[in-house]
Protein backbone atom coordinates (compact mmCIF):
# COMPACT_ATOMS: atom_id res chain seq x y z
CA UNK A 1 0.00 0.00 0.00
CA UNK A 2 1.32 3.49 -0.81
CA UNK A 3 1.97 5.95 2.00
CA UNK A 4 -0.87 8.40 2.60
CA UNK A 5 0.10 11.26 4.95
CA UNK A 6 -2.42 11.23 7.85
CA UNK A 7 -2.56 15.05 7.91
CA UNK A 8 -3.56 15.21 4.27
CA UNK A 9 -6.88 17.09 3.96
CA UNK A 10 -8.27 14.30 1.79
CA UNK A 11 -6.86 11.50 3.93
CA UNK A 12 -10.03 9.41 4.16
CA UNK A 13 -10.80 9.64 0.48
CA UNK A 14 -7.20 8.68 -0.36
CA UNK A 15 -7.32 5.75 2.06
CA UNK A 16 -10.44 4.39 0.40
CA UNK A 17 -8.72 4.69 -2.98
CA UNK A 18 -5.79 2.71 -1.58
CA UNK A 19 -8.19 0.07 -0.31
CA UNK A 20 -9.87 -0.25 -3.72
CA UNK A 21 -6.53 -0.53 -5.53
CA UNK A 22 -5.44 -3.22 -3.07
CA UNK A 23 -8.67 -5.16 -3.60
CA UNK A 24 -8.29 -4.67 -7.35
CA UNK A 25 -4.90 -6.39 -7.16
CA UNK A 26 -6.46 -9.21 -5.14
CA UNK A 27 -9.14 -9.76 -7.79
CA UNK A 28 -12.10 -8.57 -5.71
CA UNK A 29 -12.62 -5.28 -7.59
CA UNK A 30 -12.56 -4.97 -11.39
CA UNK A 31 -10.94 -2.06 -13.29
CA UNK A 32 -14.42 -0.82 -14.26
CA UNK A 33 -15.23 -0.64 -10.55
CA UNK A 34 -12.38 1.82 -10.03
CA UNK A 35 -13.93 4.08 -12.68
CA UNK A 36 -17.38 3.78 -11.10
CA UNK A 37 -15.87 4.82 -7.77
CA UNK A 38 -14.49 7.94 -9.45
CA UNK A 39 -17.94 8.91 -10.60
CA UNK A 40 -19.17 8.34 -7.06
CA UNK A 41 -16.40 10.55 -5.64
CA UNK A 42 -17.42 13.39 -7.94
CA UNK A 43 -21.02 13.26 -6.68
CA UNK A 44 -19.84 12.86 -3.10
CA UNK A 45 -17.76 16.03 -3.51
CA UNK A 46 -20.82 18.10 -4.35
CA UNK A 47 -22.64 16.71 -1.32
CA UNK A 48 -19.78 18.01 0.82
CA UNK A 49 -18.76 14.37 1.55
CA UNK A 50 -21.37 14.11 4.28
CA UNK A 51 -24.71 12.46 4.93
CA UNK A 52 -27.14 15.20 4.02
CA UNK A 53 -30.47 15.30 5.94
CA UNK A 54 -32.62 13.80 3.14
CA UNK A 55 -30.14 10.91 2.86
CA UNK A 56 -30.48 10.26 6.58
CA UNK A 57 -34.28 10.20 6.14
CA UNK A 58 -33.89 7.67 3.32
CA UNK A 59 -31.56 5.57 5.49
CA UNK A 60 -34.21 5.52 8.19
CA UNK A 61 -36.89 4.48 5.72
CA UNK A 62 -34.57 1.81 4.32
CA UNK A 63 -33.96 0.40 7.79
CA UNK A 64 -37.73 0.37 8.31
CA UNK A 65 -38.46 -1.45 5.06
CA UNK A 66 -35.71 -4.01 5.71
CA UNK A 67 -36.97 -4.58 9.25
CA UNK A 68 -40.57 -5.11 8.15
CA UNK A 69 -39.65 -7.28 5.15
CA UNK A 70 -40.64 -10.95 4.98
CA UNK A 71 -37.33 -11.81 3.36
CA UNK A 72 -34.74 -9.05 2.98
CA UNK A 73 -31.52 -9.73 1.06
CA UNK A 74 -28.35 -7.63 0.83
CA UNK A 75 -26.80 -7.70 -2.64
CA UNK A 76 -23.02 -7.23 -2.66
CA UNK A 77 -20.69 -6.32 -5.52
CA UNK A 78 -16.90 -5.97 -5.62
CA UNK A 79 -16.65 -2.30 -4.64
CA UNK A 80 -19.07 -2.61 -1.72
CA UNK A 81 -17.20 -5.68 -0.43
CA UNK A 82 -13.89 -3.84 -0.72
CA UNK A 83 -15.10 -0.66 0.98
CA UNK A 84 -17.34 -1.93 3.79
CA UNK A 85 -16.97 -5.70 4.31
CA UNK A 86 -17.35 -5.67 8.10
CA UNK A 87 -20.20 -3.16 8.01
CA UNK A 88 -22.12 -5.31 5.50
CA UNK A 89 -21.72 -8.33 7.77
CA UNK A 90 -22.95 -6.33 10.77
CA UNK A 91 -26.05 -5.19 8.87
CA UNK A 92 -26.71 -8.73 7.70
CA UNK A 93 -26.56 -9.96 11.29
CA UNK A 94 -28.74 -7.16 12.66
CA UNK A 95 -31.42 -8.06 10.11
CA UNK A 96 -30.82 -11.78 9.99
CA UNK A 97 -30.67 -11.31 6.21
CA UNK A 98 -28.33 -13.11 3.82
CA UNK A 99 -25.55 -11.45 1.83
CA UNK A 100 -25.62 -12.40 -1.85
CA UNK A 101 -22.79 -11.77 -4.28
CA UNK A 102 -24.16 -10.33 -7.52
CA UNK A 103 -21.77 -9.11 -10.21
CA UNK A 104 -21.99 -7.41 -13.58
CA UNK A 105 -18.47 -8.59 -14.47
CA UNK A 106 -18.96 -12.03 -13.02
CA UNK A 107 -16.47 -14.84 -12.81
CA UNK A 108 -16.70 -17.84 -10.52
CA UNK A 109 -13.30 -16.96 -9.09
CA UNK A 110 -14.19 -13.35 -8.25
CA UNK A 111 -17.56 -14.28 -6.72
CA UNK A 112 -15.76 -16.79 -4.49
CA UNK A 113 -13.11 -14.23 -3.48
CA UNK A 114 -15.80 -11.77 -2.44
CA UNK A 115 -17.57 -14.46 -0.41
CA UNK A 116 -14.27 -15.32 1.28
CA UNK A 117 -13.60 -11.67 2.09
CA UNK A 118 -17.03 -11.36 3.72
CA UNK A 119 -16.48 -14.59 5.65
CA UNK A 120 -13.12 -13.29 6.87
CA UNK A 121 -15.12 -10.37 8.31
CA UNK A 122 -17.44 -12.68 10.21
CA UNK A 123 -20.18 -13.58 7.74
CA UNK A 124 -21.66 -16.99 8.43
CA UNK A 125 -23.35 -17.58 5.12
CA UNK A 126 -22.71 -15.84 1.83
CA UNK A 127 -24.71 -16.80 -1.25
CA UNK A 128 -22.34 -16.72 -4.20
CA UNK A 129 -23.36 -19.71 -6.32
CA UNK A 130 -26.49 -18.68 -8.26
CA UNK A 131 -28.89 -21.41 -9.33
CA UNK A 132 -31.63 -19.33 -10.96
CA UNK A 133 -32.12 -16.46 -13.38
CA UNK A 134 -34.00 -13.22 -12.97
CA UNK A 135 -36.40 -13.03 -15.95
CA UNK A 136 -36.01 -10.08 -18.32
CA UNK A 137 -32.34 -9.35 -17.69
CA UNK A 138 -29.50 -10.35 -20.01
CA UNK A 139 -26.39 -9.28 -18.05
CA UNK A 140 -24.53 -11.58 -15.67
CA UNK A 141 -26.46 -9.87 -12.89
CA UNK A 142 -29.46 -12.02 -13.91
CA UNK A 143 -27.88 -14.96 -12.07
CA UNK A 144 -29.42 -15.16 -8.59
CA UNK A 145 -29.77 -17.61 -5.77
CA UNK A 146 -33.05 -19.34 -4.97
CA UNK A 147 -32.23 -18.95 -1.27
CA UNK A 148 -31.56 -15.22 -1.73
CA UNK A 149 -32.62 -12.59 -4.26
CA UNK A 150 -34.90 -14.98 -6.19
CA UNK A 151 -37.18 -15.41 -3.18
CA UNK A 152 -36.62 -11.99 -1.56
CA UNK A 153 -39.31 -9.35 -1.19
CA UNK A 154 -36.86 -6.51 -0.43
CA UNK A 155 -33.37 -6.18 -1.94
CA UNK A 156 -30.73 -3.68 -0.83
CA UNK A 157 -28.33 -2.79 -3.65
CA UNK A 158 -25.38 -0.41 -3.99
CA UNK A 159 -23.35 0.79 -6.98
CA UNK A 160 -26.14 -0.73 -8.95
CA UNK A 161 -26.94 -1.02 -12.59
CA UNK A 162 -30.17 0.55 -13.80
CA UNK A 163 -31.06 -2.55 -15.82
CA UNK A 164 -31.13 -4.81 -12.81
CA UNK A 165 -33.03 -2.34 -10.66
CA UNK A 166 -35.74 -2.30 -13.33
CA UNK A 167 -35.70 -6.10 -13.60
CA UNK A 168 -35.95 -6.54 -9.83
CA UNK A 169 -38.93 -4.18 -9.78
CA UNK A 170 -40.65 -5.98 -12.66
CA UNK A 171 -40.24 -9.18 -10.71
CA UNK A 172 -42.20 -7.71 -7.82
CA UNK A 173 -39.33 -6.85 -5.47
CA UNK A 174 -38.94 -3.66 -3.50
CA UNK A 175 -35.55 -2.11 -4.14
CA UNK A 176 -33.48 0.05 -1.82
CA UNK A 177 -30.57 1.63 -3.70
CA UNK A 178 -27.49 3.37 -2.34
CA UNK A 179 -26.29 5.59 -5.17
CA UNK A 180 -24.42 8.90 -4.99
CA UNK A 181 -25.89 9.95 -8.34
CA UNK A 182 -29.47 11.12 -7.75
CA UNK A 183 -30.09 11.17 -11.53
CA UNK A 184 -29.10 7.58 -12.40
CA UNK A 185 -31.73 5.15 -13.66
CA UNK A 186 -31.17 3.18 -10.49
CA UNK A 187 -31.95 6.22 -8.34
CA UNK A 188 -35.07 7.05 -10.32
CA UNK A 189 -36.36 3.45 -10.34
CA UNK A 190 -35.73 2.33 -6.75
CA UNK A 191 -38.47 2.43 -4.09
CA UNK A 192 -36.04 4.01 -1.66
CA UNK A 193 -32.98 5.85 -2.98
CA UNK A 194 -30.20 6.71 -0.57
CA UNK A 195 -27.99 9.40 -2.07
CA UNK A 196 -24.99 8.83 0.15
CA UNK A 197 -21.65 7.07 0.09
CA UNK A 198 -22.00 3.36 0.85
CA UNK A 199 -19.27 3.96 3.46
CA UNK A 200 -21.60 6.16 5.51
CA UNK A 201 -24.92 4.65 4.44
CA UNK A 202 -24.43 1.05 5.60
CA UNK A 203 -23.46 1.90 9.22
CA UNK A 204 -26.31 4.44 9.40
CA UNK A 205 -28.86 1.85 8.25
CA UNK A 206 -27.55 -0.65 10.81
CA UNK A 207 -27.85 1.92 13.60
CA UNK A 208 -31.49 2.56 12.68
CA UNK A 209 -32.26 -1.17 12.37
CA UNK A 210 -30.97 -1.72 15.90
CA UNK A 211 -32.69 1.29 17.47
CA UNK A 212 -36.08 1.25 15.76
CA UNK A 213 -39.23 -0.37 17.10
CA UNK A 214 -41.70 -1.95 14.68
CA UNK A 215 -44.12 0.88 15.23
CA UNK A 216 -41.44 3.49 14.51
CA UNK A 217 -40.56 1.55 11.36
CA UNK A 218 -44.16 1.66 10.16
CA UNK A 219 -44.34 5.41 10.83
CA UNK A 220 -41.04 6.11 9.06
CA UNK A 221 -42.29 4.25 5.99
CA UNK A 222 -45.60 6.06 5.96
CA UNK A 223 -43.87 9.44 6.02
CA UNK A 224 -41.38 8.60 3.27
CA UNK A 225 -41.86 9.69 -0.33
CA UNK A 226 -38.98 8.84 -2.67
CA UNK A 227 -39.64 11.46 -5.35
CA UNK A 228 -39.94 14.18 -2.71
CA UNK A 229 -36.75 12.95 -1.07
CA UNK A 230 -34.83 13.07 -4.37
CA UNK A 231 -36.03 16.63 -4.94
CA UNK A 232 -34.72 17.53 -1.48
CA UNK A 233 -31.36 15.98 -2.36
CA UNK A 234 -31.11 18.11 -5.49
CA UNK A 235 -31.98 21.21 -3.43
CA UNK A 236 -29.05 20.41 -1.12
CA UNK A 237 -26.72 20.00 -4.07
CA UNK A 238 -27.86 23.37 -5.45
CA UNK A 239 -27.29 24.96 -2.06
CA UNK A 240 -23.80 23.52 -1.88
CA UNK A 241 -23.04 24.77 -5.38
CA UNK A 242 -24.34 28.25 -4.49
CA UNK A 243 -22.16 28.36 -1.39
CA UNK A 244 -19.10 27.32 -3.39
CA UNK A 245 -19.95 29.80 -6.14
CA UNK A 246 -19.98 32.67 -3.67
CA UNK A 247 -16.49 31.63 -2.53
CA UNK A 248 -15.36 32.30 -6.09
CA UNK A 249 -16.63 35.86 -6.09
P1 LIG B 1 -27.53 3.51 -14.03
O1 LIG B 1 -27.21 2.23 -14.75
O2 LIG B 1 -28.32 3.28 -12.77
O3 LIG B 1 -28.10 4.60 -14.87
P2 LIG B 1 -24.80 4.38 -14.24
O4 LIG B 1 -24.65 3.50 -15.42
O5 LIG B 1 -24.72 5.85 -14.42
O6 LIG B 1 -26.14 4.05 -13.45
P3 LIG B 1 -22.94 2.66 -12.97
O7 LIG B 1 -21.56 2.83 -13.48
O8 LIG B 1 -23.77 1.55 -13.49
O9 LIG B 1 -23.72 4.02 -13.13
O10 LIG B 1 -22.91 2.52 -11.37
C1 LIG B 1 -22.10 3.26 -10.55
C2 LIG B 1 -22.96 4.14 -9.68
O11 LIG B 1 -22.55 3.98 -8.34
C3 LIG B 1 -22.76 5.61 -10.04
O12 LIG B 1 -23.99 6.28 -10.06
C4 LIG B 1 -21.92 6.16 -8.88
O13 LIG B 1 -22.23 7.49 -8.59
C5 LIG B 1 -22.31 5.25 -7.74
N1 LIG B 1 -21.23 5.07 -6.73
C6 LIG B 1 -19.91 4.89 -6.95
N2 LIG B 1 -19.23 4.75 -5.80
C7 LIG B 1 -20.16 4.83 -4.80
C8 LIG B 1 -20.09 4.75 -3.39
N3 LIG B 1 -18.93 4.57 -2.76
N4 LIG B 1 -21.23 4.88 -2.70
C9 LIG B 1 -22.42 5.06 -3.34
N5 LIG B 1 -22.54 5.15 -4.67
C10 LIG B 1 -21.44 5.03 -5.41
MG1 LIG C 1 -25.41 1.55 -15.65
From TrEMBL:
The keyword Electron transport does not apply. Pathway: Cofactor biosynthesis; coenzyme A biosynthesis. One of its GO terms (biological process) is coenzyme A biosynthetic process. The keyword Nucleotide-binding applies. Signal peptide: none annotated. Homodimer. This is 4-phosphopantoate--beta-alanine ligase. It comes from Ignicoccus hospitalis (strain KIN4/I / DSM 18386 / JCM 14125).
Amino acid sequence: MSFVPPDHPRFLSLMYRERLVEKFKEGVVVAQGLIAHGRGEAFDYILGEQTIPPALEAEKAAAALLKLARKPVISVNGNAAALVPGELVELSKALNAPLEVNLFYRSEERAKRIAELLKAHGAEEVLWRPDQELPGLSSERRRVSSKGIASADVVLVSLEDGDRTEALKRNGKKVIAIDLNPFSRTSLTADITIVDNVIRAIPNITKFVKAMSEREAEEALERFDNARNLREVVKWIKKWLDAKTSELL
